[in-house]
Design brief:
This protein is of the alpha/beta class. The chain contains 19 helices and 10 strands. Helix content is 53%, strand content 10%. Helix 6 packs antiparallel against helix 7. The two termini are 49 Å apart.
Length: 462
Amino acid sequence: MVGSENSPEMEDRLQTAWENICSGLRRDLGAQIYGQWIKPVRMTAFDAADGSLTLTLPSEFAASWVRDRYADRLTLAWKNELPDVRTISFSARAGAARIAQVKRQKPVDPAPAFAAAEKGQFRLELDPRMTFDEFIAGHSNVLALNAAQRMADTEKPLFSPLYLQSSTGQGKTHLMHAIGHAYRDAFPESRIIYMSAERFMIEFVSAMRRNEAMEFKGALRQADLLMIDDIQFIVGKNSTQEEFLHTVDSLISQGKRIVVAADRPPQALDGVDQRLLSRLSMGLVADIQSAGLELRRDILEHRLAQMPHQDVPADVVEFLARTISRNLRELEGGLNKLLAYAQLTGRPITRELAEEQLSDILSACRRRITIDEIQRTVCEYYRLDRNEMSSKRRARAVARPRQVAMYLAKVMTPRSYPEIGRKFGGRDHSTVIHAVKLVEQLRGEDTEMDNDVRMLLRQLES
């Protein structure tokens, strides 16, 4: 438990609060991200005198990662669940290896975002890494990017609100932070408010409890730029929706700028007041589609260009780009996890290491493509009889497509070399290994072979 100096009652309250917080994070973040970053967190010390809680993780890298991305959210969650906890800190468990390259962020500021004592002001917290320069454009996000840049432009945009919509991890939050950075650069004296819908609700309720609701409302309606993330979490909260509706109406009437983001279109927000739904739909709804292979590849290469000391082979980059396809947050998380493991263990980064250490991410992302499906697609592409996949013929016109099918089976399925060999007429695993290495080599030397493989990958992925 967190400390023998605490009373059993306090221990129980801490544990109950943590379980409730974890339950909410598991639902909001998804099982994959929760399991990778939040589940390993442990409460190790709580000082009732000053309300400080220490959370530990298995490594310095993990502690830094969670601190950078979730410190603010965890602080608010603890305040909501158990006000006795006023500040939180993160550390690595005793004996954990250190990574000198990790850049430390400043300590978590325990003060609430809204400060009535400062005449109704909100602290603006923008991630310095999330700028337009760091946002990688592609076919799937170009509309949202252009709209976001217009929203931050010195000229008044033709639309407001801007409603950014996409599934989890496709770049909505990045664009909102980028808007904030660019608008602040263009208008240094402007009043910018950025927060999640969850934080909006917590701050609103807290302000009412402190009898500061009028100051809270006044500060919101003085904003030049208001940005609310994850608006889907505001559903069903009648008093919060009412206040948000009045704030939106006030800002629209003043010609101010509003940006909201959600994981679904406005019409799919169940439990939202129709008046608010109408306001959210009256501007521009910019949809961000799932990132394609080329964009995923560009993002990985851009991140690695910022880390020239990291040696990640091209085949590993290609493997990650092809297999981690559900969202960009998982893609970057997978890369970071792989880099951290290599740093901590001294092992070189290889395709095999990526498959070993990212097995949970990969298995969740892979569409269940079967070897039978791969064989059928390859035979149709090369105009071969299906039986040639298991035959003993060694003619190049037959053997090369068979080797391509073995390569695709290894790239696109979780099957082992022996399992793949059995599906190709009972061939030995060494034959499959040879085929995979040969096709990888030929792709780098023969443009026609690389084009064939790319075409087959597209057919199978579609």
